[in-house]
Amino acid sequence: MPECCPNRLLPRLVIALLVGFSSAPAFAAAGDGCASVLSLNDAEARLPNDPDLRLARHAVDGAVADLTSAGERPNPSLNLSSSAYDVRHGLGPGNAWDKQVDSVIQFEQPIERGGKRGLRQAAARQGIVAADADFADQKRQALLALRQAFYDLQLAEQKLAIDRDIADAQAATQHAAEQRLHAGDIAAADVARLRVETSKADNDVRQAETDLAAARIALAYLIGCGADAAFSISGDWPVPGELPAPDDANSTQRADVAAARARAAQAHSSLDLAKAQRTRDISVGVQVEHYPGGPPAPSDGDVLLGFDVSVPLHLFHAYQGEIARASSDAAAGEDALAQTQAQAAADLARAHSDLLASAARARNFHDSILPQAQTAADAIEYAYARGALPLLDLLDARRTLHSTRIDAATAQSAYAKALAAWRAVTERYDAPTRPQE
């Protein structure tokens, strides 16, 4: 394409600077900057900066803390009391040991029965398994979102380049037509038509620059880049190759399915814990009581030793409501697991269908449609330059080539996104190994 006239570069530069400065405050504290040229591998290496992923990591830490809480045994209690104070005679003479007051010190220890501590720990361990799987699923989704944002930015850059190509071509043709108009070699209507087409092309460039800035902001947010992250994309589109066959087994090995399975197991452990509440816990205690001899002369006093055992009486309820609620939660967990498995299988089938369709479309544009459109446009450009075709044919050919190039780039982006989605839905989850507590 011919180069654009120099006086058309200034408005574009001003727009780009305004867009950059307007987005700067939003990322002033978003993190360190990125490289000026960013590949897909570079972007994926910055995935831990994703804010949603950091929140998911906190949930894992909380689940680990829950296991610590679940393993805690009941704390004992120490009670000190004084009673039998004689308001008529007072405390009496002598030292503190001989005072006329009944002093009691009591130590009491609750004892859990029915295996409640082990059941709490079992439920908490399943909670950790679920939290680990949730984190892996969040990472899977974050990686998919990052790849899609990367391809959106790559498409925006390519669209801007395509729009600039036709804008430069229209500007060069208009510049030549203006000179021919002064020489009386072209109709004024044709020049006016060229001015309209050039203005429309300029508007397309401005819109493409805005779309590019928005796509860069979206990717910068996901990878934790700051306001100075004026990066561009490097790398080619993925080329459609041999397509995989769907495998239903893959859908059962995803992280979200593992999380749902762990939560169903956790609900069953909670049900067992609710049933264990019917086993009565007891509290045992020992106390030492001291009361000195009465007046008129204090004695050495008496030290008494006592024991007590307390057992709750299930007179008004036996935790029927808690058991019913836990039973409902266990059934809901099983239903949620079945729903998640069905959703995973549907995602797999849909991703495979999208991958096949997008690959065929991208391959058709790359191998057939775009080369033919380029050949036709080159021929019309050649013929118009030699006066063999009218201006309308040239403008129509340029519009066709422009829309075809946009459609081809969109098809490439759609295939890249479909491939990323396929990899996401077929990603196998391996649970991390944790030490037994």
Task: Describe the protein in words.
With 437 residues, the protein is α+β, with helices and mostly antiparallel strands. Helix content is 62%, strand content 9%. It is built from nine helices and six strands, in the order αβααββααβααββαα. The protein has helices spanning 9-23, 40-45, 51-70, 116-182, 188-223, 248-251, 255-276, 320-385, 391-425, and strands at 37-38, 77-83, 102-111, 232-233, 282-291, 302-310. The strands form two sheets. A four-stranded antiparallel beta sheet has the order 2-3-5-6, with no helix packed on it. Helix 4 runs antiparallel to helix 5 (188-223) and helix 8 packs antiparallel against helix 9 (391-425). Residues 1-31 have low confidence and may be disordered.
